[in-house]
């Protein structure tokens, strides 16, 4: 009887923990938003550590911070696994594998440093979280969601491309010189300025430049479209499922269904 009660209490605690994690991860209430904001701040600090890593890697504090971040990401992965409906759903998520790779680069920085640039994907996760949508709506700028997400996509690609160029071509240079050269090359390539004073050697360097130019131009075009096109709101039509509508739309343009789009302050 005692063993049964102990097992039941443990099961109840596990269910409460899982419900709490799900609420934090997917909730829309004020408490969930505060937790999500805290996690977003930590993610930005992790990205800052990645950016300043070339300047810190020679100091003794680098590995200490590196392993502390590894512990944090390991805890986040465990929490997301608890909140997932099943292991299959958990391992089918794109960010699960990104975080696993990031965790591996933190645990083995000397071996897997070439994949450290993937840490910038955590900024992409913030941009696609409910926090950005509800945060913009709360301050009255919900109509800028597409612009903000397009801008975040550009920044994420800039960080990823810079990290890849740095670890693949400039890692043996001193921290300041190598990272700044990688950033300078990436910006000039994405913007197609192409001064030519810094180039990547060999066939791999040329292919890298081509990919950066193509993807970078595509993201800039996407950002420009989000800025200049008429503002739309996301509200799924209950009949046909059309997602984007004019802000003052009363009927769905696709099927004519009456819409009840909430105001920004709702």
UniProtKB/TrEMBL annotation:
Potassium channel domain residues: 155-228
Membrane topology: Multi-pass membrane protein
Transmembrane segments: 35-56, 94-117, 150-171, 207-224
Pfam families, alphabetized: Ion_trans_2 (PF07885)
UniProt keyword terms in alphabetical order: Ion channel, Ion transport, Membrane, Transmembrane, Transmembrane helix, Transport
SUPFAM superfamilies per UniProt: Voltage-gated potassium channels (SSF81324)
Domain of life per record: Bacteria
Localization annotation: Membrane
InterPro entries, per the entry: K_chnl_dom, K_chnl_volt-dep_EAG/ELK/ERG, VG_K_chnl
The protein's name in its UniProt record: Ion transporter
